[in-house]
Amino acid sequence: MNILALDFDGVLCDSSREVFVIAVDAYASLESGSALLERLRPLRDDALGGGVDFRSDDLYTVFTGLLPLGNRAEDFGVSLKAIEDETTIEDQESYDTFYREIGQKWLDSFHHAFYAARSRLREADTGAWLELHLPYPGFAAVLKRHRGCTAPAVATAKDARSVHLLLEHLGYGGVFDPGLILDKETGVKKTLHLEALRKRTGVDFDRITFVDDKVNHLVTVAALGVRPVLAGWGFNTPREHARARELGYAVATLDDATTVLFEGEIE
């Protein structure tokens, strides 16, 4: 048996709208006097209301361009701080340098504020929260067609309640065995998720393909011996596509996902 382990945000789910809304709410709770909020709040309200204008704003473009360089919830705050400070970040090295200049206390505070803001919105209006998330067209159908020969699994730092609600909402109902849905309780590192998958299934690492939309996550797990694939439809840019290819990782698109992920199996 082969395992196809998939990250959630940016692979199974387009959560860019939700991430932006929650990040602005968390930032406002910590930086209430920030002048940047005057520009962010109208964009946040447009996103929450189902609008599309926010996507063409320069602030949102810069924000999403920085997403591939982070790993955890606090990185959304780092991105907003970089925007407010007018710091130019072009690559992973410059991002990491800026990140280190921010105090750990603020990073921890934003991390907690982000999850608190998400929980408030999700519980106050679950329907509105769900509508902030979009499926990637056709991907659920691809997974369903190959479920008999390759077992799909979820490896995510997202909380279990959100994952299960969203899998149904996005059309993934029945795709994943409940025992192969590994959430944030498994650990913060993707290596822990993959090690847990190996123990649960008895499948060796060389028969596991791991799909993530962030190159830095792929670099971390590649040492285990899994096959790393970058989801080119997720939170990344040509900058990350080029880096992935330089490292020898496949870059999949929604158009060629069947070929890249299942190595040309006949549907």
Coarse structural class: alpha/beta
Give the total of domains.
2
Individual helix count: 13
Known CATH architecture of the largest domain: 3-Layer(aba) Sandwich
Helicity, in percent?
40-55%
Mean pLDDT: 93
Query: At the third CATH level, what is the topology name of the largest domain?
Result: Rossmann fold
Number of strands: 8
Order of strands side by side in the largest beta sheet? 5-4-1-6-7-8
Q: Any idea what the radius of gyration is?
A: 18 Å
- What is the CATH homologous superfamily assignment of the largest domain? HAD superfamily/HAD-like
Low confidence ranges: none
Largest sheet: 6 strands, parallel
Strand content: 5-15%
Q: Mind telling me the CATH class of the largest domain?
A: Alpha Beta
Shape from CA axes? Answer: globular
Polypeptide structure, described:
This protein is α/β, with parallel strands linked by helices. It has 2 domains: 2-14 and 135-262, HAD superfamily/HAD-like (Rossmann fold, 3-Layer(aba) Sandwich), CATH 3.40.50.1000; 16-131, no CATH class. The protein contains 13 helices and 8 strands. The radius of gyration is 18 Å and the shape is globular.
